[in-house]
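Predict fold of MSHA biogenesis protein MshP; 144 aa.
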Amino acid sequence: MFHNQTKQKGNLLIMSIVVMVVIGYLSLNLLKVETSNSDTVSKEVLGTQAWFLAHSGAEWGLVQLFPLGQSGVDDAICDGVERNPNMALANSGCSHNPSVVCERSEVSYHDEIIQYFKIKSTAICGSGANKVTRVQEVWAKEIN
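Predicted 3D structure, encoded as tokens:
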């Protein structure tokens, strides 16, 4: 039996269209994965920057609460008011200084009043869909 060449014309055209559609579908899915990876890396970098900025804000609050070179506590910062210490934000991805709030609480233990201080620092980096917030809390106790 011999195959008729005239009946097989166009077979290659249909196969090439199917192959092009499959390759196009695979490339679109690969593009979606790559875009997702790019967003994840951006958020991870901004999250790390926000974490370190919040950490710096908490350390600033501790230095205000326990001034270097002095003994005792300067609890003027612990009035529940939000403060924004001036931090160097150039080229950091963060556009706002951290928000630092200090609150004082007293606990009675064996007829002795012990003061505890909670410093909460919040930092926001990025904007829009890539906005990342990190919060750090530090607790300190006054030593008599």
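Residues 41-141 form one domain.
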